[in-house]
Write a structure and sequence with these properties.
The complex is a heteropentamer, with two copies of chain A, one copy of chain B, one copy of chain C and one copy of chain D. Chain A is of the alpha+beta class. Chain A has helices spanning about 45-50, 95-105, 110-120, 135-150, 165-185, 195-200, 220-225, 230-235; strands at about 5-10, 20-25, 30-35, 60-65, 65, 80, 155-160, 185-190, 205-210, 210-215, 240-245, 260, 265-270, 275-285, 290-295, 300-305, 315-320, 325. In chain A, a hairpin with a 2-residue loop joins strand 4 and strand 5. Chain A is elongated, with a radius of gyration of 24 Å. Classes of the chains: A alpha+beta, B alpha/beta, C mainly alpha, D mainly alpha. Chains in contact: A-C, A-E, B-C, B-D, C-D, C-E, D-E. Bound molecules: adenosine-5'-triphosphate (2 copies), SN-glycerol-3-phosphate and magnesium ion (2 copies). One adenosine-5'-triphosphate binds next to helix 1 of chain A. Chain D: This is sn-glycerol-3-phosphate transport system permease protein UgpA. Chain D: Belongs to the binding-protein-dependent transport system permease family.
Chain lengths: ~325, ~425, ~280, ~290, ~325
């Protein structure tokens, strides 16, 4: 177990493309950090620099108190779980788990002990002798986790480990991972592009965009006070409504901001509400309904209880405190 | 024991006999072991040997057919002339023991013999007496002239005795080269090339052209069936299956013909001639092959080769080979031995070849031919004949191309040897 | 389903059965011929049904052959073919899997040059430059040897290209996992890459075996010693008859024997065969 | 290109060494020799050699036999390709309709691939043998006088049939794979769009099969040009009158039988250029396929 | 436009596997029906029987008042949108749209007219001359829709038309399809395995399981009164809690039922609540949080506002009316 520090970390690929720039991050021992962002924002690159699979072009990575920039992946004392699991298809589950230990000349008895512990933790004991192809998606995922666990590394690195699973299983496995990490208290860095997964797993979130850090904070901090319009629209589902302030000139105290953000659940229907919305479509989600509409040429979505009344136009009201204001040009939060 | 490789082109019955002869030699002494290997047709054997020579994997002895003589002679440094071999190895060797027609063909301008005669032949006519009888012809009278050839063939076909009159092996050797000699027509200048490398082909004369034209006409009429290029592999089967009543082929085909023509009575005759050509019939020329010794082998092998040659030309071996195969008895002694044994009386037709080749004293046009690259020129003759058969050229045009393309090859050969 | 037209299905079956008949015809004729005796061919046409001489003809060819055709017994030629086919298949797989590994998993100076040197040979069959290749091999003293029969045919980029494709489609994460698990290049090659390429190797083996077995011109040229003749090259010599009829029954028995091993391989390992075919070509 | 690579410098050369060595010795060196010899004149035994510049090439261009060989090669390649691809496509379409018997039919159709071209040649040569062959016999019944020994056309037909026969299984397998790769929904969409089986074939299947078809076109041309040596040698040996003397056969024939090393080398050089062109076309196709 | 009726429709595949059995359904003219269910439940088979792409082994399909069992797909007057779009890759967008009309010998002018109308509706006018491979996923989806529209068929059939799109685009396209259908009022059958898509699109839902119809009804009906435990767990996210009634013996009036269902949002934290739950994990979703816990050995999930208080154990209460009772064996709804 160890802390991990990224100092001014950056990566320029040989072609000259900058994938990651100037990332500073202190990860405490035992912390669960999630890197989240849209596809191509540099999450994997960042993670792989920590793993040693990608050379570091700027800055440094420390694991514990060693600078590991020049250290081989095998010697960084980390373990990694890949999106496609990267299980060795020709080895049994047991051999998969043992391979890393064998290469390190761990004594046979010790290997067996660790494999058995991991198998118990993950409940994969009953198929230790199967080949990966004879396992279901969820089981494979567990084996991949097991391969990381047996190594007892200083840190776990996860690169979208759940995205090959179907929706139901994803939810279940996400809970398992969370529980496991709580129990082992191994420092973890987890990459995902799914904001829900990020929210539910992270001790702290790192929101990336275009290779730069947009915000670092706990899930609720990020949800409640997004540091930028990008974060605001990326985190939360249904996404925050972002409207041009010129479309609602009658809204007091917003003129100085370029963009106004308000979450769909923060809007309510009220006879005297300041906003008049034409309803375009209604989607029933069961517990609630999403009403999509338009006001002053801007699209708007509101979330209403499923037994609320509907009509062709709705008057909406909101709490001043639930407004988020962003700069039109930079997208940075104003208030 | 010293192994001596001998590459030859004797397949079928002849091959079996050849192996028997070699076995006789190998058992007659215990120093040398001759290993015969069949390498396919004459051209295949010759080219395989040349390729092997270039690859320094040549056999000590290779059998080369008569038309390869020009090429082999010119390959100074690649061959060991047989007169020199015998002299070097101290084995007695008397050129004059061989038949003059043979000696003349294989000696250089100084009268030295360059290769060892082994199997010399000349083409003759074989015919199916049963078919003749069925067609109402006299089974004991083969056609003498091409006119008769045509006439007999028509009778045979019309009577339904067979579906074709005649076929032939070797378009080049029989229907072109021998045809020319038989009618005393030149094939090329400089005494058919014997005079030197400057010779030119002249095989496109009117007599040859007329003959080719006739062959084409007869082929179209079904009287004549073409048996394929080079030796004409498809011709003998047509004769054996009694599709064709007659075949012109090497005297050495005799062994094969006898072995395969089991269902009918065989007859032999001389090649037909055009009786309106002055000087015909003259004499036919020899074919077959001689044995060449290639340079670059260890000395012991040459000693063995010389001993082997001595054995091969002994009257007993030669007579046996000649009588079995139909090749000419190449030494006077072998011929005499045959006579002594009454072989010719007991085997009617076996003397036809010899009679034909000695019918008249050879002229410049009938003592043989010697051109460089002639193996390839034979390929051209076959091709052009096929062009004519397929109707793309008439006989004169085909022969003109033979001359034109052949002369190019002769010139190329000359250039290569300067 | 798309549509209900039983007529079309019937037609399809008909086409296929006809196709199979056409495809099988020559082999049937050959087989039938190989079960007759020499005299059965004198009459004019080939018989269409098998005769009683099967065992006799085949056993004669296998252990005696036709000595006057200059070929050793067919058994010997089949052994030579087998040695040649196996050497080519195994040799080619061995050297190309190594070179593909180097090309895919390493970056080094002149990598591009090495790559092109190998890949330029991709479609350059030996027939095209047959004369100089023969001379080179002769110069090396490799005529009449198994090495000469097989090594020159081992060099061709097809197998390297195939393994390159296979390696390229292996997930990057596999190497990465192995590296994190502490495996160096050769360990990765042995523990991961080799076992994972097993079916590709097997598939390639099938194709290369057939390729090697079916070689014709090359063995024809470089073997002058009958002890090294291969069956495919030898068969032509038997078919050439001098002043006689080809020994049809024996020639066809040899032809059947020459087809048997590769055809058996294709049929027995159809799946691997198809895989190998598709992979080597793409 | 791999994301993760090893950094060793010496190891890759060691791994490449065997292949590079063989490639240099048996490919690049002979190819160089061919180029060198194409500028030389040599006698059969290799005793006299002289430099002749481009003479061997100009002689080729002047030689009606060589031009004939080019033409023969073209005709032969086109016929073999058309015949075997046509038949294979027909069979593949039929198999593609099958639901259950696919495997059986496939097994019964693929094995000729394993037959050596030379053996295929021997088989067909036997079938078409003028004296005892079954085909001339049958053809005689319908009044055709088969004679591939003197008829150029018959000879060409013979080598085309033998060569195409051997290639049917290959094309068949690729066509079947190509057909199966066309999503069923494409044909279903067309069916809903009102296209009957024939229309569907020409409007949808054939165009979507075109990458396979193009690939096979190149492969078959290469096959016909180079791999049919055995067929030719076992049947017609290039005859009659050079009617089936394709380029590879001529290279061999002029070099080994004709002993004209210079001309043969020049022909080799021409052929190598041709092969390289075909390779480039093939690679282009690979690229295009990726994009498709 | 037409109504569609399925009478006792069933399908046994040649292998003998029954994929669909006894389906009865009356689809009104202009109605939007969604078939939903887990993978392999027979949705596609059912749809394809309607399309005529799969032979019907039992029952009958009527379109309008024709029994179409024996009628070729081309003559059923339907149009279909496939999951992979099945655009003809070698034809331009325009040719793709026109192909079906051309085959029907529609006059050139009429084809052009219809293609232009469809292009306008779907805003694909600007790339009518491109080939499909030059289009983005969403654009291809539109073209596939266009191909159906130009035909002006009696019914649209959709087989998971959105599942090849990414999450964001899927939400957007789902809205578009809904709007389009509203506007054209063409009878539609839509297949999906995504319950959210089903809920938001359908006029009526048909929930399938193992080839049988589990429930037919409007989205809200199905959500509020699931006819079986299967439907209850399948529709709604987070899924309804299903607990064995023996685990909560103290709950009055539930003993006769085998299974008790209650939706996570129907549980609330109350000091006096009858259920005591040990909290296992908490997932922050932003607007709300999911609390996962355990009671009497049964797992339970509740949805709480994100500002609610948390502790290691929670007392939960609920409204009696929000309980769903199911039979333990059959899974059928009891009350
Ligand atoms: N090997 C490489 N060479 C050059 N550029 C690369 C390489 N790998 C990634 N990139 C670029 O770097 C950027 C970041 O890529 P990265 O894989 O880190 O994104 P990501 O956030 O993991 O995306 P995803 O969610 O799709 O996995 C992208 O623009 C990508 O195109
Ligand atoms: N051609 C077929 N032959 C035999 N069984 C089939 C065939 N097609 C589908 N099935 C079986 O019928 C059942 C229903 O298949 P169907 O494709 O209709 O499911 P689905 O609900 O569309 O599933 P998905 O959501 O995965 O597309 C499955 O069990 C499937 O295995
Ligand atoms: O068959 P042979 O041996 O008589 O030879 C025939 C011719 O002379 C070959 O040139
Ligand atoms: Mg990534
Ligand atoms: Mg489906």
């Amino acid at each position: 177990m160890a802390s991990i520090t990224l100092n001014n970390l950056g990566k320029v690929y040989p072609g000259g493309a900058r994938a990651v720039g100037n990332v500073n991050l202190d990860i405490a021992d035992g912390e669960f950090i999630v890197l989240v962002g849209p596809s191509g924002c540099g999450k994997s690159t960042l993670l792989r620099m920590v793993a040693g699979l990608e050379s570091i072009t700027d800055g440094e990575v420390r694991i514990g108190d060693r600078v590991v920039n020049q250290i081989e992946p095998a010697d960084r004392d980390i373990a990694m779980v890949f999106q496609n699991y990267a299980l060795y298809p020709h080895m049994s589950v047991r051999q998969n788990l043992a391979y890393g230990l064998k290469n390190r000349r761990t004594p046979k008895a010790e290997i067996d002990r660790r494999v058995n512990i991991a198998a118990e933790i993950l409940q994969i004991g009953s198929f230790l002798d199967r080949k990966p192809r004879a396992l279901s998606g969820g089981q494979r995922q567990r084996v991949a986790m097991g391969r990381a666990i047996v190594r007892e590394p200083a840190a776990f690195l996860f690169d979208e480990p759940l995205s090959n699973l179907d929706a139901k299983l994803r939810v279940a496995m996400r809970l398992e991972i969370k529980e496991l990490q709580k129990r082992l208290r191994t420092t973890s860095i987890y990459v995902t592009h799914d904001q829900l997964e990020a929210m539910t797993l992270a001790d702290r979130l790192v929101v990336l965009n275009g290779g730069r850090v947009e915000q670092i904070g706990t899930p609720l901090e990020v949800y409640r006070r997004p540091a930028s319009a990008f974060v605001a629209s990326f985190i939360g589902s249904p996404a925050m409504n972002l409207i041009d302030s010129r479309a609602v000139p009658h809204l007091p105290g917003t003129a100085h901001a370029g963009m106004i953000g308000i979450r769909p659940e923060d809007l309510s229907v009220e006879a005297e509400g300041p906003i008049l919305m034409d309803v375009l479509a209604v989607e029933e989600l069961g517990a609630q309904r999403l009403v999509h509409g338009q006001t002053g040429g801007e699209k708007l979505t509101i979330a209403l209880p499923s037994d609320s009344e509907l009509s062709d136009t709705l008057r909406l009201s909101f709490d001043r405190k639930s407004l988020h204001l962003f700069d039109r040009e930079t997208g940075a939060r104003i208030a | 024991k010293t192994d001596i490789q001998w590459w030859h082109a004797m397949g079928g019955e002849l091959g079996a006999k050849l192996e028997e002869i070699v076995k006789g030699f190998n058992e007659s002494q215990d120093e040398y072991n001759v290993i015969p290997s069949y390498k396919g047709t004459y051209p295949e054997t010759m080219t395989a040997a040349i390729a092997a020579f270039r690859a320094k994997q040549q056999p000590a002895i290779v059998q080369v057919f008569e038309v390869g003589t020009g090429t082999m002679m010119a390959a100074e440094g690649a061959i060991v002339p047989v007169h020199q071999l015998m002299q070097d190895q101290g084995v007695p060797f008397d050129q004059d023991a061989f038949l003059p027609a043979v000696v003349g063909y294989y000696t250089d301008t100084d009268g030295n013999m360059l290769s060892m005669p082994f199997n010399s032949s000349t083409p003759i006519l074989y015919y199916n007496k049963d078919i003749f009888e069925k067609a109402g012809l006299d089974p004991d009278t083969p056609p003498k002239t091409w006119g008769e050839m045509e006439e007999f063939s028509r009778k045979i076909i019309d009577s339904g005795a067979a579906s074709c009159g005649f076929t032939t092996g070797w378009i080049s050797w029989i229907q072109t080269e021998n045809f020319s000699a038989w009618h005393n027509q030149p094939i090329g200048t400089e005494q058919n090339g014997f005079g030197g490398l400057d010779a030119k082909l002249t095989v496109n004369g009117p007599v040859q052209a007329k003959h080719w034209a006739n062959l084409k006409k007869w082929a179209d009429e079904g009287i004549f069936k073409y048996g394929g290029p080079v030796g004409g592999d498809n011709a003998p089967p047509m004769f054996y299956s009694q599709d064709c009543a007659m075949i012109m082929n090497s005297s050495a085909s005799r062994a094969g013909v006898i072995a395969n023509a089991t269902d009918f009575e065989l007859g032999y005759g001389m090649l037909p001639y055009y009786d309106d050509v002055e000087g015909a019939p003259q004499n036919s020329i020899i074919g077959g092959a001689t044995l060449w010794v290639l340079s670059g082998r260890p000395d012991e092998e040459y000693a063995g080769a010389a001993r082997f040659f001595e054995y091969l030309s002994s009257p007993e071996v030669q007579a046996d080979w000649h009588q079995f195969s139909g090749y000419l008895p190449i030494t006077q002694a072998a011929y005499d031995l045959g006579k002594e044994q009454n072989y010719y009386d007991q085997n009617p037709g076996s003397e036809v070849a010899l009679q034909q080749i000695t019918l008249n004293a050879p002229t410049e046009n009938s003592k043989g031919l010697r051109f460089g690259n002639y193996v390839q020129i034979r390929g051209i003759i076959d091709e052009e004949f096929e062009q004519m058969l397929s109707g793309s050229k008439d006989a004169q045009e085909a022969l003109d191309s033979v001359v034109e393309r052949g002369n190019k090859l002769i010139a190329e050969f000359k250039a290569q040897h300067q | 389903m798309i549509e209900n037209r039983p007529g079309l299905n019937l037609l399809a079956h008909l086409v296929l059965i006809l196709g199979i008949a056409v495809v099988a015809l020559p082999v049937w004729v050959a087989f039938v011929a190989s079960t007759h005796s020499a005299t059965d061919f004198m009459s004019g046409t080939v018989p269409m049904w098998p005769g009683p001489h099967l065992v006799e003809n085949y056993s004669r060819m296998l252990d005696a052959g036709v000595s006057t055709s200059g070929t050793p017994p067919v058994g010997r030629m089949m052994l030579n073919s087998l040695i040649m086919a196996l050497s080519i298949a195994i040799g080619k797989i061995a050297i190309s899997i190594l070179s593909a590994f180097a090309i895919v998993y390493f970056r080094f100076p002149f990598r591009g040059l090495a790559f092109w040197c190998i890949f330029i040979t991709l479609m350059l069959p030996v027939e095209v430059r047959i004369v100089p290749t023969f001379q080179v091999v002769a110069g090396l003293g490799l005529l009449n040897s198994y090495a000469g029969l097989s090594i020159p045919l081992i060099a061709s980029a097809t197998a390297t290209f195939l393994f390159r494709q296979v390696f390229l489609t292996m997930p990057d994460e596999l190497v990465e996992a192995a590296r994190i698990d502490g495996a160096g290049p050769m360990k990765f090659f042995r523990d991961i890459l080799l076992p994972l390429s097993r079916t590709n190797m097997a598939a390639l083996f099938v194709i290369l075996f057939i390729y090697g077995w079916n070689q014709y011109l090359w063995p024809l040229l470089i073997t002058t010693d009958a002890q090294y003749y291969t069956i495919v090259a030898g068969i032509k010599r038997m078919a050439d008859a001098v002043d006689g009829l080809p020994q049809w029954h024996l020639v066809m028995a040899t032809a059947v024997l020459a087809m048997l091993p590769p055809v058996a391989v294709v049929i027995a390992m159809q799946k691997l065969f198809v895989k190998g075919l598709v992979e080597t070509e793409k | 290109m791999k994301r993760t690579i090893f950094n060793n410098q010496l190891l890759p050369w060691l791994l490449l060494a065997p292949q590079l060595a063989i490639t240099f010795i048996f490919f690049l060196w002979p190819a160089g020799q061919a180029i060198k010899q194409s500028f030389l004149r040599e006698d059969a035994f290799g005793i006299n050699t002289s430099f002749v510049g481009l003479d061997n090439f100009t002689a080729l261009l002047d030689s009606p036999e060589y031009l004939n060989s080019l033409q023969v090669t073209a005709v032969f390649a086109v016929l073999v390709t058309a015949l075997s691809m046509g038949l294979s496509l027909l069979l593949a379409i039929a198999v593609d309709r099958m639901i259950r018997s696919t495997r059986v039919y496939t097994t019964l159709l693929v094995w000729p691939y394993a037959v050596a071209p030379a053996v295929a040649g021997i088989l067909w040569w036997f079938i078409f043998n003028p004296t005892i062959g079954i085909m001339p016999y049958l053809l005689d019944v319908i009044g055709y006088d088969w004679d591939h020994i003197s008829s150029k056309t018959d000879a060409m037909i013979l080598v085309v049939i033998a060569s195409a026969w051997k290639q049917i299984s290959y094309n068949f397998l690729f066509f079947v794979a190509g057909l199966q790769a066309i999503p069923a929904s494409m044909r279903e969409a067309a069916a809903i769009d009102g296209a009957g089986p024939v229309r569907r074939f020409f409007d949808i299947t054939l165009p979507l099969l075109s990458p396979t078809t193009f690939f096979l076109l190149v492969v078959n041309i290469v096959y016909a040009m180079f791999d049919t040596f055995g067929v030719i040698d076992a049947t017609t040996e290039g005859g009659p009158a050079q009617a089936t003397n394709i380029m590879v056969y001529k290279v061999y024939f002029d070099g080994f039988v004709g002993q004209n090393i210079g001309s043969s080398a020049a022909q080799s050089v021409v052929l190598m250029l041709l092969v390289i062109t075909l390779t480039v076309i093939q690679f282009r196709w690979v690229e295009k396929k990726v994009e498709y």
